[in-house]
Amino acid sequence: MMKLIGRNLSPYTRRVAVAMTLLDVPHSREYLSVTADPDRGLEINPVGRVPVLELEDGERLIESAAILDYLMDLVGPAKSLVPAHGKARRDCIQLMAIGSGVLDKAVNAIYEVRRRPAEKVHEPWRQHLLRQASGGLAALDAHAAAPKSNGGSWLLGEQLSLADVTAAVTVSFLRVMVPELVTDGLYPALYALTEKAEAMPAFRAHPLETP
Predict the structure, then answer these.
(1) Cβ contacts of residue 137 below 8 Å, gap of 6+?
(2) In whole angstroms, what is the distance from residue 50 CA to residue 8 CA?
(3) Cα separation of 89 and 84, whole Å?
């Protein structure tokens, strides 16, 4: 059985866990905090990060986008959460990139205040990071609110995709870790999508951890 390594506090790990459950891919878990156990982090990944997916033969895959690409190839196009070709595929990958970009900027903003002494925090830089994250959230909200040619209420229309998984885990993470980015009323369409996703069994199976 494959093993997914990483905590659900990590939205990168959580989106892989949710995707594996949506795809019915059997796996075990090792709930690792690389902050608490950096030696184990470096043992499983040269850059000491999670998630890591350990395959049955012991091979380890790192970085959530690469792991998700492997999983989509594993299950095949009929079950994949990324469209096989064309504009739908491009849209899905671009929306995933925006969601991941929001997370990257938000995490850096968190580190600016949590990993530096207070007198060394550079507030203008933190505000720049938050502004970048806000731009991505606004883009996701606009896409969620736009009418879809095929109907439906997911980002690509009728079918849930990895773009939705990424967007939902992003918003849920920000609500806990950077609530100033997602105050009530800012992104109503994106919030509705997140609530719909979080109500699904696959999301409930991997609840967001609190720090």
Answers:
(1) 102, 171, 174, 181, 182, 186, 187, 190
(2) 10
(3) 6
Q: Decide if pLDDT at 211 tops 80.
A: no
Report the phi/psi class of residue 33: left, alpha or beta, with left for phi > 0 and alpha for psi in -120 to 50.
beta
Amino acid identity for residue 144 in this structure: A
Q: How far apart are CA 115 and CA 104, in angstroms?
A: 15
State the Cα–Cα distance between residues 79 and 60, nearest whole angstrom.
23
Pairing mode of beta strands 27-30, 2-5 = parallel
Q: Report pTM.
A: 0.95
Q: 211: helix, coil or strand?
A: coil
How far is residue 209's CA from residue 30's CA, in Å, rounded to a whole number? 14
The CA distance from 113 to 120, in Å, is 9
Q: For tokens 């064309």, what's the residue? A: 86
- pLDDT tens profile 124-133: 999 999 999 9
Q: For the sheet with 2-5, list strands across it.
A: 27-30, 2-5, 52-54, 60-62
Give SS3 for 1. Answer: coil
Contact 27, 37 (CB under 8 A): no
